[in-house]
Amino acid sequence: MTDSQTMSDDRPRKTGTFFRRNKLAIMPLVFIAPAFAMFSLFVIWPIIQSVGLSFVEWQGIGPKTWVGLDNYRELLGDQVFWTSLVNNLYWLALFLLAPVMGLFIALFLNQNVFGIRLVKSLFFFPFVVSQIVVGMIFAWFYDPAFGLLATLLKPLGIGIPAILADENWATFGIIAAGLWPQTAYCMILYLTGLNSVNPEVIEAARLDGAKGWRLLVKIVLPQLRAATFIALVVTVIGALRSFDLVAVMTSGGPYNSSNVLAYYMYDNAISRYRMGYASAIATILFLIMDVYIAWFLMRLLRNEKGAR
Amino acid sequence: MKYLKTAVCAAALTVFATSVFARDLVMNANTSDPAQKQAMEDLIADFEAAYPEIDVKFNLYDHEAFKVAMRNFLTSDAPDLITWNAGNRMKVFVELDLLEDVSDVWASEGLAEKMPAVLTASSVDGKQYAVPYAYYAWGFYYRKDLFEKAGITKTPETWDELLEVGAKLNAAGITPVTIGSKELWPTAGWFDFLNMRVNGGEFHAQLMDGKVAYTDDRVKAVFQKWGELVNSDFFIDNHPAYSFQEALPFMNQGDAAMYLLAPFIVSMFPEDVRAQVEWFPFPIIDPAVGIWEDAPTDAFMIPKNAKNKEDARLFLAFAAQADVQTKTAGTLDMLPPNVNASVKDDRFAQGGFAQLGKASGIMQFYDRDTDPALAKVGMEGFQEFMQNPDRLDQILERIEAERARIYGAL
Amino acid sequence: MFPRPIQETSRRRQIIYKVALPISLIIWLLPMIAIVATAGRSLSDLNSGNYWGIPSEWAFVDNFNAVFGSSSVGIYLLNSVIITLPSIVGALFLSTLAGAGLALYKFRGRFVILALFIAGNFVPFQILMIPVRQLTLDLGIYDTYWGVILFQIAFQTGFCTFFMRNFIADLPFELVEAARAEGVGEWKILIHVIVPLVRPALAALAVLQFTFIWNDFFWPLILIQSDDLRPITLGLTVLKGQYISSFNLLAAGSLIAALPPVMMFFAMQRHFIAGLTLGASKG
Asked: Shortest Cα distance from A290 to chain C (angstroms)?
């Protein structure tokens, strides 16, 4: 809508008068048009196309066959789909540990001692490392034969299962790997938030006898609301998007026990050549994620309206 | 100084000249293992030496990445040559009209006579679409020293002997078989051989074509044999954690004695271990059943959308020559399809060659013979069975559902 | 449960804290330390099963030489640079424009557009995968740098626009009004008033985007096929196939892949954290 308006309204610009009169209406469209065009072409339009693809059966090459809701119907009876969905729920639930651990690490590091800046940076830096590298590191870390984890625990008499080969453990092993950078991310959000916590308020609360959990919950956390909000949003999105780690650590195995929707979609597209079915899975994932996106947007826009 | 300048100019001119007149031949290959990479680079170098005016541009892919990328580039920006598997996997693309008919190369080079073993796998409806450069036998790679340590004097030829070998190895504290099932396909080797030995090759071929239900009693009989092995601790623990290469150290370090696999494993053994490794074919289970073998065939093909098909055909003809095949297959530790080529003089290649010579029939491999979507579900089932033999019924029902979806109800 | 400044606590607690700090850091970084140690281990140590014991020799130089010498890691790194830098420039350019458009003007539908940019940025990539691959094929930019670059520009523009819009909206609007009152054109206001003021935001975004795009694995996986165009994340999975049980080389390769964003982070830390947390301070 906006870009077509821009096109047609571009011409009077040279004549001056019309443009000058309306420049405050035209300029934003000129400014926004290139970004919006790119974004529409590469993001918005493909989403619509994908939803459309979910109603066909297509090998990726050759003809497309309209199958209506068949792909969705098949999903209902597909055990792997349900396993993946449940695993996504595990991801969601356990990933919420990231903000919690991030908060405690931030509280722990929120001191002014020698070298603390470097320590903070080092705590943060797992987030900067590619998920591919994180996945490879943790896969070695877990290796039952020579991994560091087994090597460290053996002398203590603790035997661990082969985490990534065990249907009961694989998902949790990957989630633990994912929590590492995610916790670092949340930690930095909270560290920044703590900078703006008013020490006088804390001091006043202490004089009032607040301490321990009460101090944290009643006084500190409310001041960290903004950080908590962002931490929750990025964590939820991160949990639902989990792909790289699953791809590099288990490829969804053993026998799909660690699959998640994002990877199962990819797997259907690339190993089973089922583009329509894959698109149906992607559409489901998209719908789930929409709940969070809507929540995020509503909050954001409410703040906007309040601010202006 | 002046002389040097002239020399530099001359050199520059030559480079310029060749770059202008060179004919580019683009090849996308999935030969990413070190030996495969070496073989392909040597082959290309030899080809470029024979045809100096042609410049081969070589794009190397990881095996799995290639399968994905292939579907993209065949439909769009196709290379002039690809490496791919003969048999059903080739047929899929032939039916989509994405591969060039190269029957003319077969005719002009007389390949039907020179490569009889791979003719069927290279053909669809009597036309050839591939020129194979290597094929290979599957079988057991085992450590002789570990066998001796366990008091085993001869390799197993029957099912009972195989079980006995396993019992002796276990008694000696050695796991009989190593396997890495993370990428799933190594499990399919077991299924293929057990099915071919229990039910015969004709039945196996029917199953691959989706004409038999996976819940059939004959299929269950295969898993019953397989279950015997699982229950007598034949396989290493935690195999889903390892890729096929990552399972190799168990053999290298003497913790496991056998590996059912193909010759690309040979170059991966450290030298001292390789000296101890020998080969034997999959034992007979039912003497009444003919001996069928898995012999996957790797080939060159020309995409329909290739730009330089003429030079690609030159390459096919070149790669089919006896001496070229001797060298390529030799580096690969595989077998040259050309009968005039010589099989590498080592125990693995010779053993495999002899075994294939005796075979009453040849299949490619599970995930090359059946529908790819079914193969994926099937191999996931094999992996799950090896971990949980008691779940057999539900596993077979799941595979059967996928078979029925693809090939229709029976 | 809000720790007092450590200086105000007893001497004993101060000592405990100062001991606990490095220990917790070591535990936190254990997987990373393991990989650095492995990257310096010789193959003979690995083959003899000495994975974590004291190494018989340090082989860092040998291993890194081997990785650079026997693989295309150099090319992969270069490709990552070639893809990442133009993507950042493009995304920053588009989003500065769009951010200004959304922040400086009031018009109907601006919240809808902003919402689209934000929402699009959060979608699961997988829903874009098949159509975007097809789109690059149709545009003839499949398996070129441009395919990945254009996609990254488009996709990252969502987040960047959100970011720039917030930053510009927080600038003192009087500056713009004063310029307008003097009859300065809107383009000139953007270039001479806004851009100088948003430099810190651009720096923060650039550093952040560098990490995101450099570390991205999915889009090169989908949009690139040639070995000589692969960025390092993708190259690493190729190395994984090549260096079968040479964990030391693979570890060295992983370190090489991880190093540029880590260096970028340490060099530009202030900007980086500002970039990550701008949203957090607003929210």
From this structure: 8
